[in-house]
Amino acid sequence: MSPHYDRPWISRVYENLPDFGVDLYVGGREGASDVGLLRANGISTVLNCAVNLDFNYVSQDDEISHDSGVGYGPAQIRYYKLGIVDGPGNPDTMMLAGYFQLKGALEQILPDKPSYPLRERGNVLVNCRAGRSRSVALVSLFLHLHLPQEFPTLADAIAHVRVKRELRPDEWDSTPKPMLIAAAERSAAWARLIEPEHDCAEAALA
């Protein structure tokens, strides 16, 4: 359990995601930094959407930077980074970018080359510092757009993720933050313009 919040370090919010066959998780910094926990839950991919938090999953350096002495190389976890502020200050397009980054992480197939040693396709974790706001907004946006029959509105998806993430009703006014919900709403509209199939799915529900 997290020392700061009375909920699991990571929470499975959707099992066997259609078209991908993997589970989708939401979590905070404690869970995202625990490689043993990630592996135990079959998580091979992490999308960190917190601008004020970073991880280093590299277990064996390929090379060392001459300037800083910091090592770099392949990581134990496939890692994507999106820097969103938990509050005002984000261009709305950053939430839209997060949707496509998460979609890309699920769809991306790495080449069979030595420079891409981690090619397994496992479960996916989206995290922020506490797994309460930024990650909840982004995953809800994805579920709403990817599964419109199940989550016809963004609010439906948020309600689902709140329950699965074990967010208490007394904190729902800030989980996610209202401006992040508004950004997700606008991003959903933009995504439908970019990917017309979302319009078709929405029309079928009418």
From TrEMBL:
<feature type="domain" description="Tyrosine specific protein phosphatases">
    <location>
        <begin position="100"/>
        <end position="165"/>
    </location>
</feature>
<dbReference type="InterPro" id="IPR029021">
    <property type="entry name" value="Prot-tyrosine_phosphatase-like"/>
</dbReference>
<keyword id="KW-0378">Hydrolase</keyword>
<dbReference type="InterPro" id="IPR020422">
    <property type="entry name" value="TYR_PHOSPHATASE_DUAL_dom"/>
</dbReference>
<dbReference type="GO" id="GO:0004725">
    <property type="term" value="F:protein tyrosine phosphatase activity"/>
</dbReference>
<dbReference type="GO" id="GO:0004722">
    <property type="term" value="F:protein serine/threonine phosphatase activity"/>
</dbReference>
<keyword id="KW-0904">Protein phosphatase</keyword>
<dbReference type="InterPro" id="IPR000387">
    <property type="entry name" value="Tyr_Pase_dom"/>
</dbReference>
<protein>
    <submittedName>
        <fullName>Dual specificity protein phosphatase</fullName>
        <ecNumber>3.1.3.16</ecNumber>
        <ecNumber>3.1.3.48</ecNumber>
    </submittedName>
</protein>
